[in-house]
């Protein structure tokens, strides 16, 4: 194939120890690669050869320091599962202006105990509107206002020196309409047209749309957009300027393998696989969570393992509970796909518990999830840059006596501040008149009532953090939540969101993407101290290693969410009071779990919990991590 690096020439130029290392990795991971490709393409052996050659070319130019990192990670494969692992996610510009600016604020991250930093889309997007950078026009360049690729390399190295792994977004479901691949398709190159889904008329799009849910029903209805230049209906799941790629074309896979390998060599350690659920299309389905999605991930991961095994994949699949686990590897893909995946279900249940003051639905829904593979970790989070969609199934709701639709409507009303007694100040995002689905935007602090001066707001913020930090996995703190930033009142007057830049379609997710105020304001110190305390307690609690399952227990008191973690060192019982009044955990439960009530200590406070009348007492919104 023209332009393809020749494997033998690349290997021959390597020192012998490197060549042996490479060959050993190919022997170890090529079977995974081939097995995945066989599920996807007819010419799979040829594609495998090509990908191994690409991996060799990247391996050959990988920095000494990164080769060393590969070695360290291979020797310590559970490095990301340790309880000391805590993540932070931010837009680089909103956190610190530029990539160089981020390096100047590492002290804040280090002070918080952060070991993993996800910087939101930082590769060159199309001009606004660009969906917060999720419409990439050039994967090889850094967003101009943030810096250059050299700055990215320098930042990755600085972070690495401080024990912080850099994560970036890999937007792989779509590219910007202005990306050279799409531009070539628009210019009439038939080969490049095949990289996308373009239809001459509505016949096929209509057939697909019969079963396709809408992602942005409000500002981008439908899943196809007519493009005058390409003279066709283009598949655009998200906005009309985000063109879905055709992953059934192996060229697309090979191109993304190169993008991953290139940024891994720039020092990126984690790739967030954006909107991964949508990458494979199948007529008659929702075109989400198709089995081939996992084969694609397995292929890309095998390539990364061969060239740069320090790299992790993080699946961003914001899907229903039943589809979630496959992203961490089930069946034949076990241990071969993403190492990390967003625990969307836990996030939703945290909000549901706070609003309903009841832990039963959360317990039931989370109990239905099969255990995650022990070599992986959930990303646990309370908020991220996106809206909250109420991913609660009708079945789970019914099992706890609720009507799914009514409960989801209640949550929308509650967090939009429309329900009597609500403390929340969220905004409705993407109201869908057909399904009556209403998602919610808003910052953690505003959704917890801080803006309305609710006296329990700080406790709620800390309780939510305690749940994600005590669940196991990799907790990721969303920028600003650690200092209780409220909704940004100027969200619709920002350069990114100003109506004249966005065609009048305001995206209110910007309400919870504020700028970080430096120095950290005094108003945030209470929450900051509390989060810091939780992070420190977590790091000193080996029971929270991600290889140990979070076992959600049926609540003994409906207002207390219970999570047991049976570690070889002993059991940890996490108890979270989701109510604004005192609740309890019966001492019998401690006995049942093998905990000695007389010797139990709460790892968060460092003290024994308060036991009275045969029960551990919890103050309003109190969290306990009990071990004995
Ligand atoms: C992911 C991102 C979201 C974006 C979408 C399309 O879900 O988190 O912000 O709108 O992908 O790229």
Describe this structure in words.
The chain is of the alpha/beta class and 628 residues long. It folds into 4 domains: 7-75, Rna Polymerase Sigma Factor, Chain: A (Orthogonal Bundle), CATH 1.10.1740; 82-120 and 148-173 and 253-290 and 307-541, Alpha-Beta Barrel (TIM Barrel), CATH 3.20.20; 180-244, Alpha-Beta Complex (Oligo-1,6-glucosidase, domain 2), CATH 3.90.400.10; 551-627, Golgi alpha-mannosidase II (Immunoglobulin-like, Sandwich), CATH 2.60.40.1180. Helix content is 36%, strand content 17%. It has 23 helices and 25 strands. The strands form 7 sheets. It has an 8-stranded parallel β-barrel. It has a 5-stranded antiparallel sheet with strand order 18-19-20-25-22. Strands 7-9-8 form a 3-stranded antiparallel sheet, with helices on one face. A hairpin with a 4-residue loop joins strand 15 and strand 16 (437-441). The longest helix is centred in the first third of the chain and has 23 residues, at 16-38. The protein is globular, with a radius of gyration of 24 Å.
Strand order of the largest sheet: 1-2-5-11-12-13-14-17
In whole angstroms, how far apart are the ends? 63 Å
The small-molecule ligands in this entry are: alpha-D-glucopyranose
Q: So how many helices?
A: 23
Number of domains: 4
CATH topology of the largest domain: TIM Barrel
CATH class term of the largest domain: Alpha Beta
The CATH superfamily of the largest domain appears as Glycosidases
Class derived from helix and strand content? alpha/beta
Task: Tell me the CATH architecture of the largest domain.
Answer: Alpha-Beta Barrel
Radius of gyration: 24 Å
Q: How helix-rich are the residues, as a percent range?
A: 25-40%
Number of strands: 25
